[in-house]
Amino acid sequence: MKFTMIVIGLLGLFIVPGFADYNINISDDNNVAGSGQQSVSVNNEHNVANVDNNNGWDSWNALWDYENSFAATRLFAKKTCIVHKMNKDVMPSIQALDALVKEKKGKEPRGPSPKDLMYSINPNKMEDLSRFGTKIAGMCQGLPTYFAEEVPGPNLPFYSKKCYTANILWILNMSFCGSTVEQF
User: What range(s) does the BRICHOS domain occupy (predicted)?
Assistant: First the structure.
């Protein structure tokens, strides 16, 4: 039953009008040393962006829900979901993301270096996902889900916990750090 719901949900994402869908190669070295492909879907009508990073065992999926100001990243290798508040000062608006994706499609990285965000994962599992909205609750349903809080400032070199990194194209580097990442 869960599988059917997931398939129906995914089909809905592809059928909904207003989606702009782009596939971008994040490295062109034949899937060696961290290469892969990202696809970005922007739905202006529902104020949501979906980023799929296909890179073998290091694949992940991110959902940015601009309507509720929360984002979730599902880490396939860890079989877990991490939810966090969107930092609108660093994360691009949905209109800016759409324009950046169109601009970077088929091009090598150029321009300013990506912005960095670092999150500390709370080790307590979230039981009620409804407060994050139906889109994120649906994506993380049935998975161990944790809330992460942003760590202010450039603290990554000094952070002693293991981190999992999700780089969004060449515009944003997100690191999720904490004992939860080490458990899996």
Answer: 54-148
Examine the pLDDT at 52 and tell me if it is beyond 50: yes
Residue 135's pLDDT is what?
96
Please give the residue range of the domain that contains residue 83: 2-183
Give the confidence band of 15 by pLDDT, cuts at 50, 70, 90: very low
What's the pTM value of the predicted model, to 2 decimals?
0.75
**How many domains is the chain built from?**
1
